[in-house]
Amino acid sequence: MQLTILALVFSFSLNIFAENDTKTSSASKNCYVLSAKRVFDGFDLHKNAAVLVNGNKIVQVGDPSQLNRSCSRKMKLGNATILPGFIESHAHITFQNIPGDKVLKHGITTVRDTGGPLLKPMGGNGTLRILSAGPIIQAVDGYPLNLFGNHGNETPSSDKYGTIGVAVATIEEAEKAVIDLVAGGSMLIKIALEPGGETGAPWMSSHGHAAPPQTPWPLLSLDIVKAIVTKAHSLNRKVAAHVGENTGVELALDGGVDEWSHIPCAEISDDLLQRAVEQNVTFVTTVDSLSGCTGIHANTHKLAHIMSHSTDSKSKFIYGSEIGHDNVPWGINGEEMVLILNLTSPDGIDFGDVLRVFKSVTSEAGKHLDNPLLGTLLKNAPADIIAVRGNPFERFKLL
């Protein structure tokens, strides 16, 4: 009976919307106004505000009484918080066969798939937006193919861009891989600089198979790393590196890599962390998924301290939870946000630090994807909107 009543109420509401629409201009027929006690636009938190949407685009965030004059269809959410859809900057949903609708349902509207089959950009307009990096460029017999092979993916092994990694042995092979990946839809070039052996690293477990191969694992040469970065930049793509310890970090820095896909697992020397900030590296966090690592908390805290005293640096933290790992949720990870807040606030926590965490998973993440409207509620941004009861700025777990 309750479900029937709810269905009737919803149907009645839609009929009222449709009736009221006849009184609006044709340009407003697809509009609606969402209002709530709080609206976060990707930059600032607004109290008792509303969002005007037309079609699949944001029109404006503002005062409800004013925006209500622009559109007759209204939804009042009360003691809730409206936010732009969250951006997951490190996931393996395709390789791990994670259902996109599950991820979308739990607050993530854009996923950057950083290691898996190569796909053209897809989604949006009501489905999960997926931006693929494609397979990780690695050394022959190195990580990740030495652990994963074609496991977890039904793509034929003859398709070298259909699994989690692609091995290269020469500069020519590396440059061709970059060209092929970009032509196939890759939005990011990712490389593995992982010799293995870090205590607590997930990649040092068996992953349900035999014990991992003996370390150290082969690494790409510096010349190959530089060639990958140069070619990727010429094609307007950033390069991210999977790094976990000093050797890989130094190689990434010498090669001019733009991003670390993780905060490294083993504790990194202070001089290399200082270099990373000076070179404007972006750090994707994944602190929760790598919580067993011995150095990740110290690395995050030290980087935050260096960044807080480097006013000229453009380094920043971007939220990443590594959807695809068994120990993290298929959606927003409140624990990742808590860890980012606690570990990247070296001078104590204030509301500005809380805002910074929310920006790292919305507007700053969109900017890093070279799409400054993504992760915002700015005019003409895609209407990726989520809402949660209560105030998640006081309690991340609500998300």
From TrEMBL:
Q: Which InterPro entries match?
A: Metal-dep_hydrolase_composite, Metal_Hydrolase, Metallo-dep_Hydrolase
Swiss-Prot/TrEMBL keywords: Hydrolase, Signal
Q: Which residues form the signal peptide?
A: 1-18
Question: Which molecular function terms from Gene Ontology are attached?
Answer: hydrolase activity, acting on carbon-nitrogen (but not peptide) bonds
**Keyword Hydrolase: yes or no?**
yes
Which SUPFAM superfamilies does its entry note? Composite domain of metallo-dependent hydrolases, Metallo-dependent hydrolases
Report the protein name in the record. Answer: Amidohydrolase
Taxonomic path:
Bacteria, Pseudomonadati, Pseudomonadota, Betaproteobacteria, Nitrosomonadales
